[in-house]
Amino acid sequence: MEFGKKTDRLKYLEDKFDDLLYVISDTYGNVLKNELISRLDITIKEFNSEMNNLFKSLKEKEVERQSLLNKHQHSTGSETIDKNQNLTDWEEKLKQIEESK
Known about the structure:
Oligomer: single chain
Radius of gyration: 32 Å
Mean pLDDT: 80
């Protein structure tokens, strides 16, 4: 059953409501059934639309988050390189001594 298709949704709803509306008289049964199916179909469409928008928004925010994270990692890496290039001779010698330990 694929609820994305209108025909599948309507078939499912009709099958379920046939059992429930059996108790109601024939006079009101079809009118009530059609109204309920119509309202439920609209509700399902709205829910699907809201969920699609939510997932789209989550994907966009994840892409943005990853982009910011990558920028931060690159800027942190370049700062480290810049710091190493700005070392004095004395600092460079100390660094070499520390690395050789």
